[in-house]
Each structure stands twice: as C-alpha cells, then as structure tokens.
Amino acid sequence: MMSKVEMTEAIILAKAEKGASWQSIAEAVGLSEVFTTSACLGMNSLKVEAAEKLCAFLGLDSEVSTALQAFPHKSWEKAVPTDPLIYRLYEIVGVYGPTMKELIHEKFGDGIMSAIDFSMDIDKEENPAGDRVVVTMNGKFLPYKAW
C-alpha cells in the first residue's frame, strides 16, 4: 500500500506536470481549497468519490486514490519550525494564543474551538501599502462538560 508521503509526492508531481493550482484541483473535487490541499499533503482523508475525482483530474492511478482515502496519522514535528511562513504562524499562536483563549472563554465559556468541525479560508486582499494575507478560521465551540 502506498504511504501518505509517497501519495503526496505523486500528487505534487502530477500537479506540477499539469500546471494545476490547488484551487483548480479543489474545484474538480468539489471541496474547499484548504481541505483538499490538506488531504493531498496527508493530514486529512477524502471519501471515495472525492479521491477518484482528484485522481481523474490529475491522471493518477487507484493506488493514490486508496492512499487519499486512508485515515491519516496527524502528527508533525514538535521542534520550532524553521520555514519562515510556518514559523510566523507558530509565532502568532505563541504571542496571541493566550489572548485568543481568553477571549473565546469570555465570549463562549470554558471550552475549545473544534479542529474537526472546522473550516478555513485563505484569501488575498490587495492593498496599496502591500497585499495582505487574510486567514479565516471557523470552528464549532465545544464546551467542556462536568460529570
């Protein structure tokens, strides 16, 4: 069986050969750009129909489709990331994470924002002072329960 790493390599190669964007792949699959990209990078799985559409669009075989459908092991490096973009997101959570937690608790109560019942959009906002990256995260509030 193909590993998630091998699957990702096959997808990225096919994406480059086709000259496709993540958005065009997502449109072919019928899912969001963020979720589709995450599945292609091995951090989420796709249902049969979506995996088959993705493989048909990129001209990939059933082995890639099967790997896309496999449940992922969601793990990542625990070291501080060194890629500049990922590091800045890590820095944002380090600096603003406690603020986000405090404000979520004040507005909703004791609980968390789901990363399962969740969506995210990444957009570009043109600005004369320099284009802006707009990241919108939308997660269901899950209250802690007492028992």
Give the N-terminus to C-terminus distance in angstroms: 43 Å
Largest sheet: 2 strands, antiparallel
Q: Percent of residues in helical segments?
A: 40-55%
Spatial order of strands in the largest sheet = 1-2
The overall strand count is: 2
| Morphology call | globular
List the secondary-structure elements in sequence, H or E: HHHHHHEE
Structure description:
The protein is built from 6 helices and 2 strands. It has helices at residues 4-18, 22-29, 33-40, 48-58, 62-69, 84-108; strands at 111-125, 132-143. The chain has a two-stranded antiparallel ribbon. Helix 1 (4-18) packs across helix 5 (62-69) and helix 2 packs across helix 3.
Please tag this protein with its features:
147 residues; alpha+beta; two-stranded antiparallel ribbon; 6 helices; 18% strand
Helix/strand layout:
Elements: H1 4-18, H2 22-29, H3 33-40, H4 48-58, H5 62-69, H6 84-108, E1 111-125, E2 132-143
Antiparallel strand pairs: 1-2
Structure at a glance:
With 147 residues, the protein is of the alpha+beta class. Helices cover 51% and strands 18% of the residues. The mean pLDDT is 94.
